[in-house]
Design goal:
By secondary structure, this protein is α+β, with helices and mostly antiparallel strands. The protein folds into two domains: about 280 residues, Rhopdopsin 7-helix transmembrane proteins (Up-down Bundle), CATH 1.20.1070.10; about 120 residues, Immunoglobulin-like. About 50% of the residues lie in helices and about 15% in strands. Strands 2, 4, 5, 6, 7 and 9 form a six-stranded antiparallel β-sheet that branches. Strands 1-10-3-8 form a four-stranded antiparallel β-sheet. Keywords: Membrane, Transmembrane, Transmembrane helix.
Length: about 475
């Protein structure tokens, strides 16, 4: 087995690794807090002048650029004397979207009027309604004509709001994605360079998985992201979503395989070892990708489409996803408890378990905090916040989440890579005083004559070995 740097680190080095991890994460968080807001809004109020019959309303957006990325039009209905009113009624909404070219000519984006049933919910104040959403921008300006049918309520005001990405945030996103792409490429090359002198058969399961996760992390940072601003197409956005789902599901699969594989030595059969894990994680990946593709395809034909409102099977998909996620969590907890129980007295293997569990626990806690700050108590509401649940509400969320996953993989790559003297140490296999660091996983798990040897940084052992060689 190729030695890991993890075996040669002292307690002081472990503390230093965690300190560096938190410093890097803290710097990205500070930059995010001081960064620009993700969403910028422009309000267009429309007064009904006590008209009893609602007429179609035409609203024109501000001039846009590709840095605005996407466009939402939302509406908040204000009723007469609505403070003590609790109303929930369905009505028909019609929308026609036109694009305005740079020369001022009007062009149809969708050569028909779209009609959808919407629900107006008012409890003191009416909930926000999403009128239309454009996933990418082909024109510099848009005109939306909105009609309301069968809405017979005492309406006082209708407040329409345009919401787009902040161009300043788009530039920040481009630069930081580029920085993470460069850093990931460097870390991947250094990790591969450190393992070049060892046969792949001698790699540990963590080292094999890191050789897969680092290239996927490169895709997760999306080196093709600038195409979104150069090509007026839905394809770069869908490609970004696909890369993110691939990496996140691979990370879930990595945890299952490592906590199980560290106990199962020798040949890990595909049918009994990998197939159940691929099946569970594959269902999660399939559900997320299917929902994303279905949303994108339908929005291309209908800007009013919302899978939370217009898809009857969304609740079924949501229940299915939560059920599979619960099975995954229970399975992972079972593997962690069993591994820690069986291997807690095994030198070095126990160290691998403790380090991975501690670092992963820190990352999960921070991720849960980020998700709570993003969703809050409105996670189940079908409003604009829920519609933007797959996007970031401020720069701090974006940078903290991306930085967290990147620095997590960088830290694992550092501790799992062989040290500078790894090749020299691996050639000392016959030396009893050094055999524990270079034994296979089978030798470590089932013990040897030197299980009681304390973890050292290798310096004293090498010195002792040289003295014995000189005396001979």
């Amino acid at each position: 087995m190729a030695p890991m740097r993890l075996y040669t680190l002292s307690k002081r080095h472990f503390v230093l690794v965690f300190v560096v991890f938190f410093i890097c994460f803290g710097l990205t968080l500070i930059v995010g807090i001081t960064g620009p807001e993700v969403i910028q809004t422009s309000v267009a109020n429309f007064s009904l002048n006590n008209s009893k019959k609602l007429k179609p309303i035409q609203i024109r957006s501000n001039p846009l650029s590709t840095y605005n990325q996407q466009l939402w039009l939302t509406c908040v209905v204000e009723l007469e004397q609505s403070k003590e009113t609790s109303i929930q009624t369905n009505f028909s909404m019609t929308v026609k979207v036109n694009g305005v070219a740079q020369d001022g000519t009007m062009m149809y984006i969708h050569n028909k009027i779209h009609n959808r049933t919407r629900t107006l919910t008012c409890t003191g104040k009416c909930a926000e309604i999403i009128v239309a959403h454009l996933g990418y921008l082909n024109y510099t300006q848009y005109t939306v004509t909105v009609g309301f049918d069968h809405l017979s309520l005492p309406i006082k005001e209708m407040n329409f709001t345009w919401k787009t990405y902040n161009p300043a945030f788009s530039q920040l996103e481009i630069w930081f994605r580029f920085v993470f792409v460069v850093l990931t490429f460097i870390v991947t090359c250094l990790f591969a360079h450190s393992l070049r002198k060892f046969s792949m058969r001698d790699w540990g399961i963590e080292q094999k998985w890191m050789s897969v996760l680092l290239p996927l992390l490169l895709l997760y940072n999306d080196p093709f992201f600038p195409l979104s601003f150069l090509v007026n197409s839905w394809f770069p956005g869908m490609l970004d979503d696909l890369f993110q789902s691939m990496f996140l599901c691979s990370l879930l699969l990595f945890w299952l395989c490592v906590y199980h594989g560290i106990r199962v030595q020798g040949e890990r059969k595909c049918l009994t070892f990998y197939l159940p894990k691929f099946f569970i994680v594959g269902l999660l990946w399939l559900a997320s990708v299917t929902l994303g593709i279905w949303q994108t395809v339908n929005e291309l034909h209908d800007p009013m489409y919302q899978y939370r409102v217009d898809t009857g099977n969304f609740q079924g998909m949501k229940v299915f996803f939560m059920a599979v996620a619960a099975v995954y969590i229970l399975y992972l907890l079972f593997l962690i408890v069993r591994a820690c129980t069986e291997l807690r007295n095994m030198p070095y293997v126990d160290l691998r378990l403790k380090f991975l569990t501690a670092l992963t626990f820190v990352v999960l806690v921070i991720s849960i905090v980020i998700l709570y700050l993003r969703f809050g108590a409105q996670v189940l509401q079908d409003n604009f916040v829920a519609e933007l649940s797959t996007h970031y509400q401020n720069s701090a969320e974006f940078l903290s989440f991306y930085g967290l996953l990147n620095f997590y993989l960088y830290t694992l790559a550092f501790v799992y890579s062989p040290s500078k003297n790894a090749l020299y140490e691996s050639q000392l296999k016959d030396n009893p005083a050094f055999s524990m660091l270079n034994d296979s996983d089978d030798d470590v798990i089932y013990g040897s004559d030197y299980e009681e040897m304390p973890l050292q940084n290798g310096q004293a052992i090498r010195a002792k070995y040289k003295e014995e060689s000189d005396s001979d």
